[in-house]
Fold this sequence. Notes:
This protein has helices at 2-16, 27-33, 53-56, 76-89, 103-114, 120-137, 143-164, 167-174; strands at residues 41-45, 64-68, 93-99, 179-185, 192-194. The chain is of the alpha/beta class. The longest helix has 22 residues, at 143-164. The chain is globular and about 50 Å long. Zn(2+) binds at residues 46, 48, 99, 102.
Amino acid sequence: xxxxxxxxxxxxxxxxxxxxxxxxxxxxxxxxxxxxxxxxxxxxxxxxxxxxxxxxxxxxxxxxxxxxxxxxxxxxxxxxxxxxxxxxxxxxxxxxxxxxxxxxxxxxxxxxxxxxxxxxxxxxxxxxxxxxxxxxxxxxxxxxxxxxxxxxxxxxxxxxxxxxxxxxxxxxxxxxxxxxxxxxxxxxxxxxxxxx
Length: 196
């Protein structure tokens, strides 16, 4: 799929330090030239400030439709945003992008193990992550391994939710107009590993 290849190639340029798009023109020149957006991919990513999505994929203004929320969860507003992008822009690829050392995953693990008290607003996020973590808690894994597995399972569960909970998405997938894949960004290496 060409859209996935564009992301893989862009991430490789980011890792290699050979990015091509972000320094061509001052930002105000890009904005003046963009009348319509035509994103080739939708990225549902974590809101973590260490994961600048356009930068890690070396993509420019208008290339990606980015939806960010702690823990890259699928809540009604995120689903609505995805459906909007599919309907309006005919976007062909959705990437659920998680990352190493995710704070939302860590907070959910801490809540599950130590019964920490969180606000109701934070619960609205951690309650969506818990199904990814609860099966892993009793495996008695070292902390780093638990975190790594939880990040990946959470990505895959978000992919499955997108695939199963929206008629618009199901219809697009059935007609071979849309693919949904998971990916995991390493804060240490800068590499994006595609999981699905």
